[in-house]
Specification:
Elements lengths: L13 H6 L5 H6 L26 H6 L7 H11 L9 E2 L2 E2 L11 H5 L3 H9 L7 H8 L10 H6 L2 H22 L38 H13 L8 H19 L22 H27 L6 H11 L7 H11 L5 H13 L4 H22 L12 H24 L14 H4 L39 H31 L3 H20 L1 H10 L6 H30 L5 H9 L2 H22 L22 H24 L12 H20 L4 H25 L2
Antiparallel strand pairs: 1-2
């Protein structure tokens, strides 16, 4: 029988008892008393623990000698032998054991759920952490304290569990769709095998990772890879090893903290956005903002300390932190509105939004992660080729697959984020040659070896005949829909690669023939999408309420990114044709059919339809963390993609409404009777509501939304004044 918890007076050290202070020594030592694998926090990645009792916070702050109450040690020894302490807490498929090295989730534990586990779900991860926990974490540590934020979080297991759940429901949820053995072009095998989707037994059943419960696959993958790569491919000292683990821990916590406090923004402003910076709201958000700022700064410091280390944990930490937006301060908030309030012109609005985006520097961490991943992939390939047989690491087939998965993950985000942020891709085509292309490369020394074209092509990513592709439609089986969404991911990436090709061609002032060939390649990708995934995704939007939550969170992230890519492509084609940088005949043909205008209209239309469907639904993702369950828009790890997508759609409808207002006769009658004006304002409102929803986890989204709302309400006021008697 387990020992009872010590009485309250036994939990107070002598110094706190004399000073009549609340002593937290028992709580601090309770979470540090057990080794990894029992009741230790999931952040204890190293499997180490301290036998020495820790002083309480009051004694550390006042530099007094803590009495080290012996009752704590006795209770720790007794509790560590309790059978209940060996039962991992599982929350919606994620448990503490999933974040502990050496443990792997089994299919039985990942799919089973009991009433007691559901009770734990809603008692811990699904509820908002208590205010006193957030206050203690948000308060900067004492200058005399040597403990990190992790030590503070150690005594606040509900908050830590909540942050873990967010990471699980957001990051690992999407990686199960983006990175699969059927779509990854880097399988690190000697002989390339075409990807095959579906059950090998011929059954139309979903894979285990596609269902309502999934593991922390990528997190466990990077830990496993670092263990397998040492000490042959990766050389880390014990101190460096601990620093790498700490950087990953803090990166995950900082990433997840973006969603803390978002539920305080409940209603969309209906009259004026002036209350966005009201004292009441800023006071309510101040606590969560302090927590986010503390974790973000500590994660940045930890990553700076390991910036010279090359290991898989550091790569993954830099990748996660590269997707984490910088917390915005009140000074940034004030200066933005002062500048934007003096102008109402749309070009000034766009330049102000561009200025806001320029203040984000998260791409630096993503670039570092890509370079390090490329270096480790190179070492792996050379060892596989037998160049370093004396120190060849022992990788299992699962580890080899994991290297390809992580590399493809970094290549994908490099391809998407670089053209979106107007930056060059880190890895050129010849540096990230895919397995499908390697089989067709000429041998070294042959006549065609110098004329190799490493550019990505559509046939590298196809799983069917491009002339007669399979066209899925909803409703269909869960497995069929999941396969279709998964297969669409690399096509989306290919579109952004062609956006980069066009940006590079314009920058390098390439020949008209080269630019036109690149442009036609992008058009072929769009044409294939229109024949296959466009009708399917439109079905999912129309039947939004009937789509299962997991599939809904998947397709929304791909759908928004695709349409943003289309809007970026339209801007480039417009610039190319306007400056005569392409084939003259082809440019005239595009103008004759309003090719660019149609792309912009379709992209904005798709985004506004999704925004209308999403904002009309309530609790679209039941069972997910409370911070994301209201909308799949909150499950995108890279928030900047969604912000840019709905921002460009909002600008499109704002410009369209302004143009209609300027037309003769429109402003002389009730604008609500003008169908074009009415539809534009309705779709603009939907896109702004989507941006407002993103503002629950992003200060950048809140600022962009505020600027857009000012122009929106200014236009509405002009319309009302013109139609007033």
């Amino acid at each position: 029988m387990a020992a009872a918890r010590p009485r309250k007076q036994s939990q107070v050290c002598v110094q706190c008892k004399r000073s009549k202070k609340r002593c937290d020594g028992y709580v601090l030592n309770a979470v540090q008393r057990t080794p990894a694998g029992s009741t230790s926090l999931p952040w204890t990645l190293h499997g180490t623990f301290k036998k020495t009792l820790q002083p309480c916070t009051y004694c550390k702050r006042t530099l007094k000698d803590c009495s080290f109450n012996s009752s704590w040690a006795v209770s720790a020894d007794r509790d560590s032998t309790s059978p209940a302490s060996n039962v991992p807490l599982r929350v919606h498929g994620v448990s503490r054991a999933d974040f502990t090295p050496g443990t792997r989730p089994s299919s039985d534990t990942s799919t089973s759920s009991t009433d007691s586990s559901r009770s734990q779900i809603y008692n811990l991860a699904r509820q908002r952490p208590p205010a006193h926990i957030l206050w203690r974490l948000a308060t900067p540590p004492s200058p005399f304290s040597t403990e990190s934020s992790l030590a503070s979080c150690s005594s606040n297991q509900p908050l830590v569990q909540s942050l873990l759940q967010i990471y699980h429901d957001v990051m690992e949820n999407n990686l199960a769709c983006w990175v699969t053995d059927s779509t990854c072009p880097y399988m690190t095998s000697d002989m390339y095998k075409p990807p095959v989707l579906g059950d090998p037994n011929g059954k139309d059943s979903p894979a285990p990772e596609w269902g309502a419960s999934w593991s922390n696959r990528m997190y466990q993958c990077v830990l496993r890879l670092d263990r397998a790569a040492q000490p042959t491919m990766i050389h880390l000292t014990p101190i460096e090893n601990r620093a790498a683990s700490r950087a990953l821990e803090l990166a995950i916590m900082s990433f997840s903290s973006q969603w803390q406090g978002g539920q305080r923004m409940e209603s969309f402003p209906s009259a004026s956005p002036n209350h966005l910076d009201s004292p009441a709201e800023r006071l309510a958000l101040g606590l969560e903002q302090s927590l986010r700022d503390l974790l973000w700064k500590q994660a940045r410091t930890a990553l700076q300390e390991v910036s010279e280390l090359e290991c898989f944990r550091v790569i993954y930490a830099e990748f996660i932190f590269g997707l984490t937006q910088r917390p915005w301060t009140d000074d940034d908030f004030t200066s933005t509105f002062r500048i934007s309030s003096v102008s109402s012109r749309q070009d000034t609005l766009e330049s102000e939004i561009a200025r806001i985006f320029s203040q984000e520097n998260s791409s630096v961490y993503l670039d570092r992660a890509v370079r390090k991943a490329h270096a480790l992939k190179y070492r792996f390939d050379t060892s596989e080729a037998g160049l370093f047989q004396e120190s060849e690491p022992k990788f299992s087939p699962q580890d080899r697959q994991g290297i390809g998965f992580l590399y493809w993950l970094l290549v994908m985000h490099d391809t998407v984020c670089s053209p979106m942020n107007e930056r060059p891709v880190v890895l050129a085509d010849e540096d990230c040659v895919m397995d499908a292309l390697k089989q067709h490369l000429p041998a070294q020394g042959s006549s065609g070896a110098l004329q190799v074209n490493y550019r990505w092509k559509l046939d590298m990513f196809l799983h069917d005949d491009p002339d007669s592709p399979q066209v899925p439609r909803w409703p269909c089986s869960y497995a069929t829909a999941a396969k279709a969404i998964i297969k669409s991911t690399p096509i989306k990436i290919l579109l952004y690669r062609y956006v980069f090709y066009l940006q590079n061609a314009i920058k390098n002032k390439e020949s008209k023939r080269s630019v036109e060939n690149c442009l036609q390649g992008a058009v072929s990708v769009c044409r294939y999408w229109d024949m296959t995934y466009s009708p399917f995704f439109s079905d999912l939007v129309r039947n939004y309420g009937s789509v299962p939550p997991r599939l809904k969170s998947w397709f929304v992230c791909i759908h928004v990114a695709w349409n943003l890519g289309m809007l970026l492509l339209a801007d480039l084609i417009d610039l190319i044709d306007d400056k005569g940088m392409s084939n003259k005949t082809a440019a005239q043909a595009r103008r004759s059919i309003d090719f660019v205008a149609r792309i912009r209209m379709n992209g904005a239309l798709e985004l506004s339809e999704l925004a209308r469907a999403d904002t009309a639904s309530k609790e679209a993702l039941p069972g997910y963390h409370f911070a994301v369950q209201e909308s799949p828009l909150l499950t995108e790890p890279c928030t900047a993609i969604f912000i840019r997508g709905f921002m460009k759609a909002s600008l499109y409808y704002l410009s369209l409404a302004a143009d209609l207002w300027g037309q003769e006769g429109v402003h002389h009658r009730d604008f609500n009777k003008h169908q074009g004006m009415k539809d534009s304002l309705m779709r603009l409102d939907a896109c702004l509501r989507a941006l407002w929803c993103l503002g629950r986890k992003s200060g950048l989204a809140r600022r962009v939304t505020s600027l857009m709302l000012r122009e929106y309400y200014r236009l509405q006021e002009s319309l009302v004044e013109a139609n007033s008697p």
